[in-house]
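[Structure tokenization] protein backbone as discrete codes

[Encoding] learned vocabulary of local backbone shapes

[Begin record] amino acids and matching fold tokens:

___
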Amino acid sequence: MDLTGASALVVGGAGGFGEQTVRKYVAEGLKVVIADVAEEKANAIAAELGDGVVFVHTDVTSDASVDAAIAKAQSLGPLRVTVIVNGGPGGGAAQRIVSRDGKPMPMEAFLQTTEYYYTATYRVLSRAAASMQGNEPLEDNQRGVVIMTASIAGFEASPGQTSYAMAKGGVIALTLAAARDLAPAGIRVMGIAPGTFLTPAFPDPVKADEMYGKIVPNPKRMGRPAEYAKLAYQIAENDYLNGYVIRLDGALRFGA
């Protein structure tokens, strides 16, 4: 897809994956909207990268808030790429269905995880696609692409990941169905399923890489957010990537 003069919306653009995706897209000449709630971090990124980057405070649980971010991106140039990489309160913290003292997981915790990691993904996908449908078509009737973030936990989860795995499994299932739904409009849908990545969520990156990197078959390290960003740009460029979730995990399989 020709991205000349286009804009991109990165939902969660102030986080680990999101920031590197913003930087990659700006380096490739796109205008970018950072949609996030982390105002201080997002404003700092936008100030550093210059006029081509705008921060819009975005609540992914609100239709109106998501619509405002989409509208801002469209004002910068045709919105051709939407990347959905937002997290949520608690970061999908591990919690078993039944705790060791015999208590079931609180429904509030379950619903919060699915709201931010699945429902919000669908909200952004549907509303961004509705906006992209109005774009002038490019070669092969292409109007845009939505890149969703799943997880290898959606394929095989570790203990304590029930709600997170369900949410990410939903994103995986959504990818092909949405790609087929949106095909007549010339809008592609892809997913990226990261493995264990070294993001700012880890306070001690050296210790984290030593602990978790050794379980990755090859290379023997945690992934880097810039590797996610590189793939997200390659997906945007390549029109024949559609309806599929790419594992980005160094061949890691939980339980293997």
About this structure: The chain has one domain: 7-248. The mean pLDDT is 95.
